[in-house]
From TrEMBL:
SUPFAM superfamilies linked: Protein kinase-like (PK-like)
Name assigned to this protein: Lipopolysaccharide kinase (Kdo/WaaP) family protein
Organismal lineage: Bacteria, Pseudomonadati, Bacteroidota, Flavobacteriia, Flavobacteriales
């Protein structure tokens, strides 16, 4: 394995242990997720538990692009996690990324701190009577406002990519994962509301979240509600049409 590895300054002293984790990745059977595209495994690093994400091997063309034109998913995940942390947006702490190059990119890995959490956003989609659901939704709306105010457009702002941790009575923290697709810069109101579309929000969820975002943004609740509903419905119709075509 011809590894090129970049380690966060906080973990440089554990350089050899991090390399050992990567070299032993294939033999590690402690799976967190085992998908068709990416695999995440859990391991120990000193006193910490970490997640090692192995990205799907790119095809030949993608491999050349990632090696010489565009940053790999692992590198972007690492850099965006550092940026989010600097801006006060929660994400599992970035530790390192590594690329195995051989005439292009053969494999890439991203290592981050393992996070113990209580639920992800999907639970709120599927469980209307989840305890304190409205409280969580209001706080999530404020969290997303903070994200937008920081000029961060999280392109994969979807239910599976927000982990939720209860830290005290009626108080929650939100952590973003799967970070390799982001844009940065000032966001218009339209773009902000468009960024909610992948969350698969119901009418009730929008009714709860829109007033919070509107108050923080200093704009009309009616306008926020209208735009959030518009983009959510458009996205849901698009996905449902694709599903219907596949069935046919």
């Amino acid at each position: 394995m011809n590894l090129e590895i970049i380690i966060h300054p906080d973990y440089v002293s554990q350089h050899e242990a991090i390399i050992a984790l990567l070299l032993g990745f294939d033999k590690n059977e402690n799976f967190v997720t085992k998908g068709d595209r990416n695999v995440i495994k859990k391991a120990g690093l000193g006193q910490k538990v970490v997640n090692i994400k192995s990205f799907k091997k790119p095809n030949f063309f993608q491999s050349i692009v990632y090696a010489y034109v565009r940053k790999s998913k692992a590198e972007r995940s690492f850099e965006y996690a550092k940026l989010l942390t600097e801006k006060g947006i929660n994400t599992p702490a970035p530790i390192a990324y590594a690329i195995n190059k051989k005439g292009g990119i053969a494999e890439s890995y991203y290592i981050s701190a393992h996070l113990s959490y209580d639920l992800d956003f999907r639970v709120l989609n599927h469980t209307p009577l989840y305890p304190e659901r409205d409280i969580i939704l209001r706080q999530f709306a404020a969290f997303t406002f903070k994200l937008h105010e920081a000029g961060i457009e999280f392109l994969d702002h979807s239910p599976g990519n927000t982990l939720i941790k209860k830290v005290s009575p009626e108080q929650y923290e939100f952590y973003l994962i799967d970070l390799n697709r982001m844009k940065f810069g000032e966001m218009s109101l339209e773009k902000r509301m468009h960024n909610f579309r992948r969350l698969w929000l119901s009418k009730k969820m929008i009714n709860v979240m829109a007033p919070v975002y509107a108050k923080l943004a200093g704009v009309s609740e009616t306008e926020i509600h209208m735009l959030m509903s518009k983009y959510s419905k458009e996205f849901q119709r698009k996905v449902n049409r694709k599903k219907l075509r596949r069935r046919k």
